[in-house]
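Posting here for the record, re: benzoic acid.
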Amino acid sequence: MEPGYFTETDSAEVVIARNADAKSQRLQQVMAVLTRHIHAAVKEIEPTTEEWMTALQFLTATGQMCSDWRQEYILFSDIMGVSMLVDAINNRKPSGASESTVLGPFHLADAPELPMGANICLDAKGEPMLVRGRILDTAGKPIAHAKIDVWQANDEGFYDVQQKGIQPDFNLRGVFRTGADGRYWFKGVKPKFYPIPDDGPVGKLLAALGRHPFRPAHLHYILEAQGFDTLVTHIFDPDDPYIHSDAVFGVKHSLLAKFDLITDPARIKAEGMDGPFHLVEHDFVLAAKA
Ligand code: BEZ
Ligand code: FE
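Prediction output follows.
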């Protein structure tokens, strides 16, 4: 049967029928679902022509903000909770495995591999922190030769790549490999909360929504080991003022670590530290490849 002409009532189905000869079934399915949902949203919202133009101008400005260094559409997806939703759908884990969260834009693929225990803070700025734990499988067995790629913001809330010429290159990043006991340990500085890049259309949208742009203090990890799913995750400071309102919804209960301030001189000496420091102990559990 010939599909009918466009009407307000049949709008979505008329458009979907027009895509009947799509080259890919997946594209056809995705476009049908999007068409149905977008038409339903427009019918519910009933935007004025001016409001619709404002929406299109927002998308235009978002595209214009994108460059080799800036992905404003990912930020849009982040603040809408869509990045975390896609992450959740693609990283369903068996019980007991550590949970994933967003990668974020500040990972560098070529961070230096360092000896276990190294200090990733290259400018001696910030409150010292010792981070340690084990990389385990879901049966609690240590994973040897696991690769731990870690990166963090400094105590002012900036990554090295945001402060070229101010922070040394590769400050607060490093790659470590576990030995047979699956243990890891390294030194850094206590991270601080920071705003996601908010000088573009997404920042304006957050402000218009009465939302702040901050992410609570965290350390980023990518954990890789042969035979296991790669885990992209963070650990968070549970006492951070923004722990309940992460701008990108990245916090999960299981990712809350403990940042214990150690001031006892005997413990400081026993841990080989020079003065008071934050001790962060956190084990990660990797899921075996299906
Ligand atoms: C980050 O944690 O590095 C990050 C994540 C999402 C958006 C911006 C920054
Ligand atoms: Fe981050």
